[in-house]
Specification:
Blueprint (H helix, E strand, L loop, with lengths): L1 H21 L6 H18 L1 H4 L5 H10 L6 H18 L2 H31 L6 H10 L3 H21 L3 H9 L1 H6 L3 H16 L3 H20 L13
Length: 237
């Protein structure tokens, strides 16, 4: 449990460092938001079947909106930082591990988006088409991080599935809703409760997680092979 708590603190520190970077004047915020807006639109297409499903919609939105980047993480992570000692003591080790990996996934996703934002700034693009995205993706292609991102999605999804089979955990989270909100931790509480409740609704959690994994892996391979690399234009991010 000590190791799990330490890993949780390290993941939280990484998230806090990225939040600090966002506020620096050199941060390419407009380009970063352009990348994320394009990806949100892409998610709607890639996962249209899940979004249209009564049983899968909530988990799909939670997974892709809460765990896959976005700037809305800062208030939630401030909540986490304030109650981290309590969470490290009281949460089951599996739940703490899932939260750690959620933070790690968030940081990897944000860093990869930042790499693409810096490339957009370099090229001067003001809007993105899929061919543009593929070119930017290749110029910022960091295969180990991309593979870790996709593998973390898969691992975290299966861990959330396992956590929903711990009935006392979801009951405990629901029971502390009012005191959490009253104490100023409403954003964190919504994250925990929505995630567990969403995965509880899934008709086939294994199919859901594996489908996301396979689709994201296929898209990585597609964008990587979209056109030959141009070493003169490539950048190291």
């Amino acid at each position: 449990m000590v190791a799990a708590a330490q890993a949780f603190r390290q993941a939280l520190q990484g998230s806090n460092e990225f939040a600090w970077a966002i506020d620096q004047p050199e941060f390419p915020l407009a380009e970063f938001l352009l990348v994320q807006d394009w990806q949100r639109q892409r998610f709607k297409i890639t996962y249209a079947d899940f979004v249209a499903s009564n049983t899968d919609q909530a988990a799909c939105r939670f997974f892709l909106e809460e765990l896959y980047g976005g700037l809305g993480f800062r208030q939630r992570d401030e909540d986490v930082h304030r109650v981290e000692p309590i969470m490290s003591r009281l949460l089951p080790e599996k739940a703490l591990q899932a939260l750690t990996e959620a933070l790690q996934l968030q940081v990897i996703s944000l860093e990869l988006d930042l790499c693409m934002a810096e490339e957009i700034r370099r090229t001067g693009l003001s809007q993105i088409e899929e061919t543009d995205y593929a070119s930017i993706y290749q110029n910022c292609f960091r295969q180990p991080e991309r593979l870790r991102q996709i593998n973390l999605i898969r691992k975290l999804g299966h861990e959330l599935e396992a956590l929903t089979r711990m009935p006392l955990l979801l009951g405990l989270v629901k029971a502390v809703r009012k005191p959490a909100v009253a104490s100023g931790f409403g954003r964190l509480h919504r994250f925990l409760e929505q995630g567990l409740s969403a995965f509880k609704q899934l008709q086939d959690p294994h199919h859901f997680v594996e489908s996301i994994y396979q689709r994201e892996l296929a898209l990585m391979q597609k964008w990587q092979a979209e056109k030959p690399h141009n070493n003169d234009d490539s950048v190291s991010c």
